[in-house]
Amino acid sequence: MWWVWLVAGCSEEVKVPPPPLVHTGGPTTPSTPTAETGGTSPPLTWWTERVDGLVTAVRIAGELGEPLATTLRCRAWDDPRDEHLLHLEPSVRPSATLYGLLADTTYDCEIEAGGELATLSFVTDPLPDDLPVFEVSGPGSPSGAWVLMNASPRRDGAGQDLLVVDVEGRIRWYLPVVGGSPDVDATWTGDAFVYGGGFGVAPTRLGLDGAVLAQAAEGHWNHHAEPLPGGGLLALRESEANAGGEPWTGFAIVRLSPDLQDETLTWESQRGVDDGWLPPSTGQVDPYHANALEPLDDGGALVSLYQRGWIVRLKSDGSRMWTLGRGGDFELLEADGTPADPSRWFHQTHDPELAGDRLLVYDNGKEAVGVGRSRALELALDEAARTARIVWEWTEPDWFEPIWGDADRLPDGHVSITVAHCSSCQSGAGPTRVLEVDPATDEIVWQLAATSDAIGGYRSQRVDPCDLFPDRISCETAAPSTRQVAPTSAEARGGSP
Questions:
Q1: What is the dihedral of CA 428, 432, 433, 434, to 10 degrees?
Q2: Which of 361, 354, 218 minimizes the C-alpha distance to 294?
Q3: What integer is the mean pLDDT of 109-113?
Q4: 82 and 471 Cβ atoms separated by less than 8 Å
Q5: Where do you find CATH 2.115.10 in the chain?
Q6: What is the 3-state secondary structure (H, E, C) of the chain?
Q7: Is residue 83 a contact partner of residue 472, using CB atoms and an 8 Å limit?
Q8: Beta bridge partners of 354
Q9: Half-sphere exposure of 1 (CA within 13 A, CB side)
C-alpha cells in the first residue's frame, strides 16, 4: 500500500527549494491528496502513482493551471544520500518516473513550479518475497559501480530475474523474465538493457519500465549479444556445420540492425571447418559451444569456444588471425618470460576481454591437471612473437566452478569477478558471488554474495548508477537531465521479453 501526503504553499518570494525536509511522521489515512494554492497563483496539484510490478520506482504527476517548468527533488528519509533531482520542461501536466529507489522506504519530496512550493511524501512497498537476498562484505573501498546480473531460479520456479543491486546489497531494479536457460546475458547500453541467450531468448532491448523496445526473431541464440556503435548488436546463434555429410551444432556470428529485425550473417563455424583450422565434431553434439564474443575496432571479433578451450581472433573479412590456447598459435610464458608448462593454459573460458595487448579472461579450469580450479587470468599478448605472458592471475582455495562466470576490468583498475554458481548443474560450492579484487594487492575489497546456494547467476556487469539513474543528485556529473516520462503500462511488465 502507498502512503502519500502533500502540502502546497504560496509565496512570491520562493524561487528555489528550501533546505532539506525534516520527516514529521506518517499520514493517518491512505488517500491520494491534492492541494491548491490560493490568491492569483495557478493551482498546483500533485500525486504519486505506482509503477506496475516495480516497487523501486514511483511516478510523480501534477496538474497545473498553466505550463510551468518544474523542479522535483526527493530524498530517502532513512538514507539521505539517496536523493533524486529532476528539472521538467514546462507543462500543464508534468510527470516523471523516479527509478532506482529503495524498497520499503519513506521519501520526502519538494516540488517547485512557478515560484510555488509543494512538499510530498510517499513510502515504497517492500520487495517481493520471491527476489533473492544478498550480503556484502569486504575491508576496502569498492569502485561504486552497481551490479547488473540475472538470478535464477525464481522462488516460484518460473524463470529468473534481472537485477540491479547497489554496493550495499540492496536491490534497486528488477524484472521477472521467463523462457530460456539460466545462462543468459544482460547488458546496460546507456539507454536500455540488452538481454537474451540461453538458447531460448532472442536478443531483446528492454526499457527501465520493463517494456520490450525491440526483439530479434526467435531462434536458438547462444549466450551473448554485444552492442555495436550505432545501436545494432553482434550476436551468437546456433548454425549447423557438417563434414562428409555428418552434421553437428556449430555457431554463427550475426549482425542485428538497431531495431533487431534485420540479420546479416557475418561468419559461420562451417568456414573454419572448410578452411581447415576448426576441427569437425568427433561425436559431440556441440563441439565448440561459443559462449562469448567481443567486437574489435578493426571490424573483427574475438570468440570464446568453451569446449575447445580456445579464444579465436577473426579478421573483418572472416579469416582467422590467431588461436589462443592449448594447441594454438602462441607460446605461454610465465611472468618472468620463461616458458610455462602447458598445464598453465586456461581450461574452458568465459567472456574474454581484449584491451590493447592485454587479454583478461575467466578461466573455469574444468580440465585442469589434477583437481579442477577456477581463476581470473590476464595475459600480455605479443602477436608478432606469438607469445602470451601471464601477467596476473587470481584464485582462492577450493574455488572451482566448471561452468558460467565473468571477469571485467573496472575504470579504477580493479577487476570484477563473477563467481557464478549453478546449484542444479555439475558445479562447485555456492553461493553465486560478485567480487571486486585489487590486482595490486590481490585483496578482495568488496564482495556481494547471495544468501542461498540455490541462487544462480550467469554473468554480471558493473554499471555506473549515474548512467542508469542520472537524476541521482550524488552523481558528480549531475546537471540533471530535462525530460518528461510517460506513465508505465501494466502490459509493459506483465509478460516475458
A1: 110
A2: 354
A3: 94
A4: no
A5: 216-451
A6: CCCEEEEEECCCCCCCCCCCCCCCCCCCCCCCCCCCCCCCCCCEEEEEEECCCCCCCEEEEEEECCCEEEEEEEEECCCCCCEEEEEEEEECCCEEEECCCCCCCEEEEEEEECCEEEEEEEECCCCCCCCCCEEEECCCCCCCCEEEEEEECCCCCCCEEEEEECCCCCEEEEEEECCCCCCEEEEECCCCEEEEECCCEEEEEECCCCCEEEECCCCCEEEEEEECCCCCEEEEEEEEEEECCEEEEEEEEEEECCCCCCEEEEEEHHHHHHHCCCCCCCCCCCCCCEEEEEECCCCCEEEEECCCCEEEEECCCCCEEEEECCCCCCEEECCCCCECCHHHCCCCEEEEEEECCEEEEEECCCCCCCCCCCEEEEEEEECCCCEEEEEEEECCCCCCCCCCCEEEECCCCCEEEEECCCCCCCCCCCCCEEEEEECCCCEEEEEEEECCCCCECCCEEEECHHHHCCCECCCCCCCCCECCCCCCCHHHHCCCC
A7: yes
A8: 359
A9: 6
Residues 6+ apart with CB under 8 A from 454: 153, 423, 430
What pLDDT digit, counting tens, does each position of 249-295 carry? 999 999 999 999 999 999 999 999 999 999 999 988 999 999 999 99
End-to-end C-alpha distance for the chain, whole angstroms: 27
* Cβ–Cβ < 8 Å for 484, 95: yes
Burial 299-325 (b: 16+ CB within 10 A, else e): ebbbbbbbebbbbbbbeeeeebebbbb
| Grid cell locating 192 | 536500455
Contact predicate 164/468, CB 8 Å: yes
Residue 376 has pLDDT above 80, yes or no: yes
282-312: pLDDT as tens digits: 988 999 999 999 999 999 999 999 999 999 9
Antiparallel, parallel or unpaired: β 212-215 and 221-227: unpaired
* CB burial string 220-243: b at 16+ within 10 A, e below: ebbbbbbbbeebbbbbbbbbebee
Q: Is residue 472 within 8 Å of residue 458, measured between CB atoms?
A: no
What is the CB neighbour count within 10 angstroms for residue 374? Answer: 26
Q: CATH 2.60.40.10 spans which residues of the chain?
A: 4-125
Res. 32 pLDDT band, cuts 50 70 90: very low
Cβ neighbours around 278 below 10 Å, total: 21
CATH class of 4-125: mainly beta
The total number of residues shown for the chain amounts to 497
216-451 classified as CATH 2.115.10: yes
| CA 50 to the chain's CA centroid | 24
- In this structure, what C-alpha cell is assigned to residue 275? 578452411
